[in-house]
What does this fold into?
Amino acid sequence: MRYMLGCNMTANIYKFPLSIKKSEVFHLPVAPQVTSRTRFESCLPKKLPFVMPEEAIRLLDERMKQSENEIKLISINGPGDPLAVPDTTLKTIELVKKKYPDIMVGIKTLGIGSDRFASALFSAGLGLVEMVVNGVAEEILEKLYAWIRPGQKTLKIGEAVKLLINEQKDGVAALKYHDIRVVIQSVLYPGYNIDHVEKISRKMMELGADGISLIPYHAVEGAEVSLASPNEGDIAGAMSAAKKHLTVVDSLLNVDPVKDTSNEVILSSLVAGPSRERPNVAVVSSNGMEIDMHLGKAEKILIYGPREDGLPCLIDVREAPPPGGGVNRWEVLAESLSDCFALLTANAGQSPRKIFAAQGISLKICNDDINGCVEQLYPTGSKKKKKQV
It folds into this structure.
């Protein structure tokens, strides 16, 4: 779809560049699904926390009670891509804007789906998008990315980069048509794309982007390829090239979910834990070893609970209600799991998520081994286990 800049008459109330400090940004990790990995990112498995939209608002409420810096911007960023779970992202934006209408909401994304969802994002109240654009030429992106997964299927890298370029091009134009601020975020990889920054800046300017943020690359443990970080001359040269076409700004939404612990204390207090009434965890699995099944396909539910020494183990297997019951199916299942504080599944629709949340059961999306995920929900058991070793 082609867009003409300036056709949307609704003015964005936020002046650019934004006069917001990083200390005035609060991050809400509601997106579990990762859509890409560069060759310079860690290949090591990561278990990063995320929350459902309702939990995210509770997280924000707790932060707003504190007397620290005023919150002016909500960053929906990580541990995956917000546009990979559009329903969750839109719900989170709507909840934030309903309760805190004066706070700006932004997302950081690779941009896949930004054209398709631009109108809905605007209607929900989104004010800012930071789009990761590391190149506008196929040959450069093929060298940067290990894989790109626009949906449930990982494409061949040649096909994927073509799709990515088109999605970003159409997405920036669509977002700007709806008067959403767009900042391009480019990571500077020495020997790969630093000399390409001016082309990125010029192309994104032509599409209507508001600014560009340059992030110097830093080596991480477990990466397929490691480089030396760009030196001061590299960075200065890239900034000089970029600002020929776009205003160079600091990223407000960029955060390392491994290093950033700003939400850690509040987040840990919101994650459901075992209680006398709800001591157990429900798990959906096809093989009894991994959390690998969509809740809607589950025929049986595995129940894990604590032994006398506090360590969790399999204590029961229950039949799931048959498919086709609609909302009633999830209400029946939630009632049958009244002794559980959490349910772990590879994926689930919005209807069961809402019903389980209303019943006090925390539905968590995981793709990992059962024992490791369950043990994380029993901190006391984990400590005892360490002492016994």
Q: What stands out?
A: The chain has twelve helices and 14 strands. The longest strand covers residues 181-188. The domain at 22-267 is CATH 3.20.20.70 (TIM Barrel).
